[in-house]
């Protein structure tokens, strides 16, 4: 039976993926996150954009309270982030059909929000797609790094037996290339940013989720295993 590893620490994701295909699937994170000191915006934002459940976690109690009581409209990148926000008592106003930064920009294009203030708490390594897209739409963007990501110190031993790796972020792709000996195991990726990084690092990418979500990754895994050598 094939061994498939997901770089997400979410064991629920590994369980859901394993239910779709006859393989041994385990969560084997290659990165860890740590919180950064950050300041809340001094101006009341009109919009708060949240692009991951991890952002909700690293906002901390004070940050989550600020978001909930700011009067701003809340945009969530996708279902997992929305669930995390709802669990924190925060209702959302926008979740795009395309669960990605580009999807958020496309949705905002229809709302004509030029001149509005947008607060973007998130990763210090966030791809500029969202900030650049909103700026191009005329919003005043306030990026705010609240956490950062670094590789784990050593490669988890289970990677010695990996037949396929499900890369759930660009930082995980970088960590795999940094930590794993050649030849690197083939991979599938959760989206195009992680696909591009993986290919640039010499990782053989066998598939990319059409929708950058757990559901999209699951479908990608199912299709990839059908044609796995």
TrEMBL record:
One of its GO terms (molecular function) is uroporphyrinogen-III synthase activity. The lineage of its organism: Bacteria, Bacillati, Actinomycetota, Actinomycetes, Actinomycetales. It catalyses: hydroxymethylbilane = uroporphyrinogen III + H2O. It holds the Pfam family HEM4. Its EC number is 4.2.1.75. It comes from Winkia neuii. This is Uroporphyrinogen-III synthase. Belongs to the uroporphyrinogen-III synthase family. It is an enzyme of class 4 (lyase). Transmembrane segments: none annotated. The keyword Lyase applies. SUPFAM superfamilies: HemD-like. Keywords: Lyase, Porphyrin biosynthesis. GO terms for biological process: protoporphyrinogen IX biosynthetic process; uroporphyrinogen III biosynthetic process. CDD domains: HemD. Pathway: Porphyrin-containing compound metabolism; protoporphyrin-IX biosynthesis; coproporphyrinogen-III from 5-aminolevulinate: step 3/4. Catalyzes cyclization of the linear tetrapyrrole, hydroxymethylbilane, to the macrocyclic uroporphyrinogen III. Residues 42-217 form the Tetrapyrrole biosynthesis uroporphyrinogen III synthase domain. Gene3D superfamilies: 3.40.50.10090. PANTHER family: UROPORPHYRINOGEN-III SYNTHASE, CHLOROPLASTIC.
